[in-house]
Amino acid sequence: MKHFDREEAAGGLMALVMGFLLAGFLLLVTGFGLDLVTHIATQLFSILTTASQMRYDVFMLQVMVFRAEPIIFLLGLGINYWITEIRTESGAVALGAITMGICETCIITFVLMLMTLYGGYAVDYICNFINNWFMPGINTFWFYVPQYIPIIFYAFMFFLSIAVVVQFVILCFQTIEYAQVQQYSV
Amino acid sequence: MDNITFLKRVAKILLFMFVVGLALAFCGSVVYAYPSVSITNASPDYVYFQASGAASGTWGQFKWGAFQNGPYYWSTPNQTINGTTFTDFQYGPPMMTGAKYYVVACDGTGCGSSATFTVPAAQLPPQTAFGLPLLTLLHQGIDVGDLLNDIVAPYTQPLYSANGGLSISASLIWGSLFFFIFVGLWLRPKDILIPCILAFIAGGFIMTSAYGIPVQFMQVGQGLMYASVAGIVISWFIK
After folding, report:
1. Has the ipTM of the complex gone over 0.90?
2. Measured between CA atoms, how close is B75 to chain A, in angstroms?
3. pTM of the full predicted structure?
4. Does B232 map to a domain?
C-alpha cells in the first residue's frame, strides 16, 4: 500500500479534471450523431407509418440513458477517485479504463438505439404482414406465441441499455480491485 | 275429405309449425348467447377490452385481427370466467399504430359478434439537439473563450427531452466535480479545512467580473464556492 504518493495524487486530480472535460467533448460529438439518428427516424417513420408505439417508447428511454451518460461518467470518475484514496491512499484515477468504459457505453447505447429503430421496424413489418395475410381456415393457435416476439424484442433492447450502464458502474469498482496496472500515474 | 276439413288440417299444420318455430327461436337464443365486447382507452400502445354476457365457469379470451369475420390471429391469454363479465388488455405489438382491428369475445360456448377499434397514429420521438453546441463551436472557429461553456453542455442539457424537461446548471456540475475532489482529499489526511478556505477565496475572486474574468469562468467559481462551503462546514463538524 502506498501512502501519500504525491505524484500519483497530482496525476489523479489532473486525470479527474481532464477526464471530465474530454468526456464533455466526446459526448458533444456523439450527441451530434444521435441528432442525425433522431432526425432520420422522425423523417423516415413519418412516411413508414406502420409501427408499434413501443419502438419509439423504448427509443426515447434509450435517448434518456444516453443523455444521462455524462453524469454517470462524472460519478464513475469521482467514485473511482474515492476508492483509490480509501484503498491505496494514492489518489490515482483509472482514467484509461474508465474513459474506455464510457466510450464503450456510448457506442453500445448508440448501436442499441439503431437496433431498436431498424430491427424493430423489421419485427413490426413481419407482424403487420401476418396481420394483413388473409388465410381463412388457418389454425390461429400457431400465432399465439409469435405475437409476443416484438414485446420480448423491445424489452430485451431496453434491459440491454440498462445493463450497459450497470456494467460501466461495476467497471468503476472493478478497475481498482483487479486491474491496478491500468491506473493513471504521472 | 271436404274443403273445410282440408283447411282445418292445413291451419293445424301451420299453427304447429309456428309454435315449433317459436320454440326453436327461443331455445336458440338461450343456447347461442355469445359474449359481447366493448372497447375503451384506445391509445397508440394500449387498448382495454371488456366482455359481457359470458357463460360463467368456462374459459374466456379476446381474439382480434384485421378482418371483420376472421381469421383473428392475435389473442389474449385464457382466463376462467367468474360471473358473466371478463376483461383484458393489449399493450403494444402486434398492435400497430394507424391500423383498424376487429375484436371478438369468446367463452366456452363460442365467440360473439365483433367490435372495431382504430389505433391512433404513432407519437414519433422528438428531434434531439445534443450536438448543437458542437455546431456552434465549429461555426465560431473553435472559440477558446466559449469552449468552457460548450464542453459542459452535455452535462447541462435537459435530461428528459430535447425540447424541455429537467436541466442542470453548469455551476452544479462544476460543484459536483470539486465535491469529488474535496471528499477525495479528505479521505487521505482526514482534514480539508485549509484547501477549502483557499478554494473559498479563489472561488470568490473568480465569481466576480470586477477583475475581467470571462463569464464562463464564473460558473466554475460558483461551483468551487459551493463545494468549499460544504467542505468547511463538514470539517467544522468533524473537528
Report:
1. no
2. 7
3. 0.76
4. yes
